[in-house]
Write a structure and sequence with these properties.
mainly beta, six-stranded antiparallel sheet
């Protein structure tokens, strides 16, 4: 799953209308359009440029069409979100059920400031519009290192006996070991279910994260090792530890990863106040530890609702460099069984 030589076009599809795939019982006379390629999360490489002789990046945009007559004019509006300008591509419908607007020309920006376009297809009279597809375009070649998970191996199953400490009262813990050609002393970050759980540097061709705490409650856990958001590898481990669920579900910042910024601020007061949500079991007592160890007095305590959820509102968070602030939760069910969340690391910047 390592990505190499990414031309780094990151695509995020925002689906605003119902899908058509597998719509065997749908009314085929009702006009519908859905853009299906590119798709959410796709990364397009240099090989996807369909005309290397033309400046910019040329791609095709494919849409599914229903209810239009042969010869009806269809349009694709390509809107440059940064420049605030748009242009249309037009073609006649051929009755096949799909159309491809091609070539669509996009201009890329640098990695830290990509261009952004939004695609919306429509009928010529404008009465039917497709879902919107928003595309970030980065016109730089990025060479990524290889990563290989040694422990855990992708798809591995763990149970209570795999806890490296032998004591589940402070959570399920296990070392994470990865080999890489990133280079000695290269900085890397480790994420667990999109939450930052560790940072470190490569030693030779290897990096080890000791006693990583995995959230209680079991199920699949996705580990991601990365040097940048474009260069990463993932592995999934399935855990059955028999403990009550305990998982911090917010904040889990992804844009940029690991940073709690102004988008999470839920108060008009000075500084950063963010909501912290924890998922456990109905009626569980949940303790939140903000930048302190589990051995300390919890920062906040509350009870989960009938769905097992609890949100601590407007929690005061101090400004912190990347990876310097921690959040962890401890959950106790009605029988007194204890579950512990992962230790999530953050940077906090109220103006980022």
């Amino acid at each position: 799953m390592t990505h190499r030589r990414l031309f780094a076009i990151t695509l995020t599809a925002l689906f605003l209308s119902g899908g058509l795939a597998g719509c065997s019982g749908c009314d085929q006379t009702t006009k519908r359009i859905e853009c299906i390629d590119p798709v959410s999360g796709q990364v397009i490489t240099m090989a996807d440029d369909i005309n290397a002789l033309t400046p910019g990046i040329q791609i095709g945009v494919t849409c599914t069409v229903r209810g239009f007559d042969i010869g009806d004019r269809l349009s694709l509006n390509v809107y440059d979100e940064i420049a605030g300008t748009g242009r249309d591509y037009n073609l006649p419908y051929d009755g096949t059920g799909t159309v491809e607007f091609s070539p669509v020309t996009l201009q890329g920006g640098p990695v830290d400031s990509p261009s952004r376009y939004t695609f919306i297809a429509s009928g010529d009279d404008g009465d039917v519009e497709s879902n919107a597809v928003t595309v970030d375009v980065v016109a730089e070649i990025v060479t990524c290192p290889e990563f290989d998970f040694i422990d855990p191996i992708d798809g591995e199953d763990w149970n209570q006996s795999d806890d490296s400490v032998g004591d589940l009262s402070d959570g399920f813990q296990h070392d994470v070991i990865i080999t890489t050609d990133a280079g000695d002393a290269e900085s890397v970050s480790l994420y667990l279910n999109d939450a930052l759980v560790g940072t470190g540097t490569v030693s030779g061709t290897r990096i080890e994260f000791e006693d990583v705490t995995f959230p209680s409650g079991g199920g699949p856990m996705v580990l991601r090792i990365q040097t940048t958001e474009l260069c990463f590898a993932e592995a999934t481990v399935n855990i059955d530890d028999g403990s009550p669920a305990c998982n911090i579900t917010a904040p889990v910042p992804t844009d940029p990863s690991g940073w709690i910024n102004a988008t999470f601020d839920t108060s008009t007061s000075a500084g950063m106040q963010a909501d912290v949500a924890v998922e456990s079991e109905e009626g569980a007592t949940i303790e939140l530890f903000v930048d302190i160890a589990l051995t300390e007095t919890p920062t906040l305590t509350g009870s989960a609702d009938s769905s097992g959820d609890l949100t601590f509102s407007a929690v005061e968070l101090a400004e912190a460099a990347f990876g310097e602030l921690t959040l962890q939760a401890r959950c106790r069910d009605a029988a007194g069984n204890i579950g512990v969340s992962s230790i999530n690391f953050y940077g906090v910047d109220s103006v980022l």
